[in-house]
Amino acid sequence: MIQDDYKMVVIITRDGRALAGNVVRENERQLTLRVVGQELVLAKSEIQSRETARVSMMPEGILTYMEDEEIIDLFAYLQTKE
């Protein structure tokens, strides 16, 4: 099961852009989407469609091929709040 904060959302804007990321904040008028390295604020009126992915952004089985030290580093990174 994927926690809501980590579900990937795919948004298609009215001008044809496709954006994929995590919803950070949302209210009646706008949505803030975290995409690689940045946060984008979109007016909801700009959004043509919005779909939540059923799979995690973390590839299935990723830990199988990693060394213990790499797994520790990965989890330490995922716990940072930058």
Could you provide a short overview of the structure?
The chain is mainly β and 82 residues long. It is 13% helix and 39% strand.
Task: Give me some keywords for this one.
single chain; mainly beta; 13% helix
Walkthrough of the structure:
- This protein is mainly beta and 82 residues long.
- The protein has one domain: SH3 type barrels (Roll).
- It is 13% helix and 39% strand.
- Strands 4-3-2-1-5 form a 5-stranded antiparallel sheet, with no helix packed on it.
- The mean pLDDT is 88.
- In percent, how helical is the residue content? 10-25%
CATH class: Mainly Beta
According to CATH, the fold-level topology is SH3 type barrels
Q: What does the average pLDDT come to? A: 88
Total number of helices: 1
How many structural domains in the coordinates?
1
Strand order of the largest sheet: 4-3-2-1-5
The ordered H/E elements are EEEEEH
Per DSSP E runs of 2 or more residues, the count of β-strands stands at 5
Oligomeric grouping of the chains: single chain
**Shape summary:** elongated
Blueprint (SSEs and pairs):
Layout: E1 9-13, E2 18-26, E3 30-35, E4 38-43, E5 47-52, H1 68-78
Antiparallel strand pairs: 1-2, 1-5, 2-3, 3-4
